[in-house]
Design a protein that fits this description.
Strand order of the largest sheet: 5-6-7-8-9
Number of domains: 2
Family: Belongs to the HPF/YfiA ribosome-associated protein family. Long HPF subfamily.
Shape: globular
Protein name: Ribosome hibernation promoting factor
Function: Required for dimerization of active 70S ribosomes into 100S ribosomes in stationary phase; 100S ribosomes are translationally inactive and sometimes present during exponential growth.
Largest sheet: 5 strands, mixed
Strand content: 35-45%
CATH class of the largest domain: Alpha Beta
Helix content: 25-40%
CATH superfamily of the largest domain: Ribosome hibernation promotion factor-like
Number of helices: 3
GO molecular function: ribosomal small subunit binding
CATH architecture of the largest domain: 2-Layer Sandwich
Structural class: alpha+beta
Number of strands: 9
Subcellular location: Cytoplasm
């Protein structure tokens, strides 16, 4: 597994890197059979240390967790605890969904844009209905089932996931509703 362990404006020592690699290896061996890479970023937020970890699995799932504490090792332990809890919660579903899958999840590329927020001054109408694009990126869209999409959204701690439904090949969306339930958009 490839590791990318870094710090934002803080120095990460060799001992911390070794500790992170060992702990993540143990965690992945416990729940996930085929991790491909892990990115762990340490930063400071006022007097707290923050650890954000993202682990990509060959099955197409991405697991994300965040932890913070007064000390850097405790921040990582908090992050690892949250990741362990997520993986433990989905362990049965991970095994059930991927036992019949013969090949890794396929991804399609799609353009992704960040639009500038329009500030309506005194309720005035904007001059143009064309939004201003401030960033353009490439996004990966997985070809997975609806159940896998819901699980990916939960593991990635996001509110929305766009995916290609592997049953019929069309683009679908799952999202977290305001009432806490999950919504699924499957256009004709």
């Amino acid at each position: 597994m490839r590791y990318q362990i870094s710090g934002k404006q803080i120095d990460i020592g060799e001992a911390l890197q070794t500790h992170v690699e060992t702990e993540v290896d143990e965690l992945m061996a416990k729940y996930a059979q085929r991790p491909t890479d892990a990115q762990v970023v340490f930063s400071r937020d006022a007097h707290h240390h923050v650890c954000e970890a993202t682990v990509h699995l060959s099955s197409g799932l991405t697991v994300q967790a965040r932890g913070q504490a007064n000390e850097i090792y405790n921040a990582f332990e908090s992050c690892a605890e949250r990741m362990d809890k997520q993986l433990r919660r989905y362990k049965r579903r991970l095994k059930d969904h991927y036992k019949d899958r013969r090949s890794p999840v396929e991804f399609a590329g799609a353009p992704s844009y960040i639009l500038a927020a329009e500030d309506a001054v005194n309720g005035d109408e904007p001059d143009s209905l064309q939004p201003m694009i401030i960033a353009e990126m490439e996004t990966r869209i997985p070809s997975i089932s609806v159940g896998e999409a819901v699980m990916q959204m939960e593991l990635g701690q996001s509110d929305v996931l766009v995916f290609r439904n592997e049953r019929h090949g069309k683009i679908n969306v799952v999202h977290r509703r305001n009432d806490g339930n999950i919504g699924w958009i499957d256009p004709d």
